[in-house]
Write a structure and sequence with these properties.
- One of its GO terms (cellular component) is cytoplasm.
- This is Signal recognition particle receptor FtsY.
- It is found in: Cell membrane; Cytoplasm.
- The chain is of the alpha/beta class.
- It has a domain of 157 residues: Serine Threonine Protein Phosphatase 5, Tetratricopeptide repeat (Alpha Horseshoe).
- The chain contains 23 helices and eight strands.
- An eight-stranded mixed beta sheet has the order 3-2-4-1-5-6-7-8, with helices on both faces.
- The longest helix has 18 residues.
- The structure holds guanosine-5'-triphosphate.
- Guanosine-5'-triphosphate binds next to helix 17 and helix 18.
Length: 473
């Protein structure tokens, strides 16, 4: 009955009796500034790490970075090294020791605790961003993009978008350069000159001539013109604008069969790169390596074209530019031996992607076939199911010759995708349609210039729109 006189026990007394009340430690931290450092650490300890996100926010809002330091050994004792390192990382980052802070976060980044792992990577990314090491910042974000807590989603997306902009990965910049790269073909086709005309026999004949000149290939051109004639008759089309829309739709439908995503889902993934000398193989490997690295992958190159010292040196230059490792042998070394060494290196370092350059001498087909089969055998033995991609590099300038090269390589080995280079340098960009329609091999990448960023995933819709784009006056 005298209960109403009993003094409410103080928070501290309650916690002395039963410290396993994390919410109450949090309340004490908010109530008593002097007690805040110890109370906030006890909040973390007695929530068994669950309130990490809240605790971190409080440490920052109370600005008690230095004050929590004496209590961190207790965190290590109760929760382990990963939690203690993470908190020490926060203290060091506050002191401006970014390198030390990053190393401390690194201890916690692979923690089983998803919040601790997320926050560690997130803070590593923010430190790299501060230091303008954007590719590594992006890699750290990529590692955690599947496990972003709800309350971080928006902030995470903004940070990722900013890094993509800085790394030139954003669609807009790349799309513009792609359309510029198609200018020569677009001008040669001159489809805009067909606008506003009557649909008559001369129109079909002119269109047929333009498509063949753009290297669409005779068979594919005839297939397209027949299709347009039939549809024009069936739908009683009188205006050339409608006919051009039909052609655009048909080309998109044709090319959509050649759309293929790059298969690098396994770790490690091996990409075997084929192609005759001069088509842009080494350049494409260099561009691809850089882009994959910027996407956060650890990439290593194997100089499998040992026939010429120049090829090895050239690949070294590109490895340097892309900032990736290269494994090479002496000129004349057995390519399979170089690939074997590269595989041992990948195993030792745990790389994500191995890109293998190969010789480009098609005139000695038997020897090339033996070399490639041996390389594939070595790869498949060490990494079952690999190579994931067998990428054939073709030069868009070589027109129909590229088709015969592709046919020759298909006799040597299966080809999973095509990288079509120098689309920017040719008026014969119609070869894309011929390759797709004749060879039925996915076109995965297109080269649109000599610079390292001039490589892009092939997007059929984008390509066709680029052919029809009306030049701004
Ligand atoms: N304009 C343009 N030039 C390119 C492109 N890709 C490669 N090149 C150029 O084509 C030339 C040959 O490129 P490489 O990468 O050396 O070709 P490769 O197949 O390795 O030839 P080898 O070195 O003889 O084995 C170089 O001058 C490149 O800069 C591209 O997409 N556009």
């Amino acid at each position: 009955m005298f209960g109403f006189f009993r003094r409410k026990p103080k928070l501290e007394d309650e916690l002395k009796k039963n410290p396993y009340q994390p919410e109450k430690w949090l309340k004490l931290a908010e109530k008593d500034e002097r007690k805040a450092p110890e109370a906030i650490i006890n909040t973390l300890i007695y929530s068994n790490g669950e309130l990490l996100d809240t605790v971190v926010k409080k440490i920052k809002s109370f600005a008690i970075f230095r004050e929590i330091e004496p209590f961190i050994p207790k965190v290590e004792e109760k929760l382990g090294k990963e939690y203690a390192s993470f908190l020490l990382g926060i203290v060091e980052e506050y002191k401006g020791n970014l390198q030390k802070a990053r190393n401390l976060y690194d201890v916690a980044r692979n923690s089983q605790d998803s919040t601790l792992s997320f926050l560690s990577n997130y803070y590593i990314a923010s430190i790299y961003t501060k230091e303008e090491v954007y590719d590594l910042a992006y890699k750290a974000l990529k590692e955690i993009e599947e496990k972003v807590p709800e309350n971080y989603k928006l902030e995470f997306m903004v940070k990722k978008r900013e890094l993509e902009e800085k790394l030139g990965l954003s669609g807009s910049k790349l799309l513009k350069s792609f359309k510029e790269g198609l200018k020569k073909t677009r001008d040669a086709l001159g489809l805009s000159a067909f606008k506003g005309r009557e649909v008559d026999e001369s129109l079909f004949e002119e269109l047929e001539e333009k498509l063949i000149l753009a290297d669409v290939g005779v068979n594919t051109t005839l297939e397209l013109i027949d299709y347009l004639r039939n549809e024009a008759k069936k739908r009683k089309i009188k205006s050339s604008d409608q006919l051009l829309e039909l052609l655009k739709g048909k080309l998109k439908e044709m090319l959509s069969k050649c759309r293929g995503s790059f298969n690098i889902s396994e770790k490690p993934s091996v990409i075997l790169v084929l192609g005759v000398n001069g088509v842009g193989k080494t350049t494409t490997i260099g561009k691809l390596a850089k882009q994959l690295k910027e996407k956060g992958y650890c990439v290593v190159l194997a100089a499998g074209d040992t026939f010429r010292a120049a090829a090895i040196e050239q690949l070294e230059v590109w490895a340097e530019r892309a900032g990736v490792r290269i494994i090479k042998g002496q000129e004349g070394t057995d390519p399979a031996a170089v690939v074997f060494d590269a595989i041992q290196s990948v195993k030792a370092k745990g790389d994500d992607i191995l890109i293998v350059d190969t010789a480009g001498r098609l005139h000695n087909k038997d020897r090339l076939m033996k070399e490639i089969h041996k390389i594939k055998k070595v790869i498949g033995r060490e990494f079952p199911g690999q190579p994931a991609e067998i990428l054939l590099v073709l030069d868009a300038n070589t027109g129909q010759n590229a088709i015969s090269q592709a046919r020759a390589f298909k006799e040597i080995t299966d080809v999973t995708g095509i990288a079509l280079t120098k689309l920017d340098g040719t008026a014969k960009g119609g070869i894309v349609i011929a390759i797709c329609n004749d060879l039925k091999i996915p076109i995965k990448l297109v080269g649109i210039g000599e610079k390292i960023e001039d490589l892009r995933k092939f997007d059929p819709k984008e390509f066709v729109e680029g052919l029809f784009e009306v030049e701004k006056e």
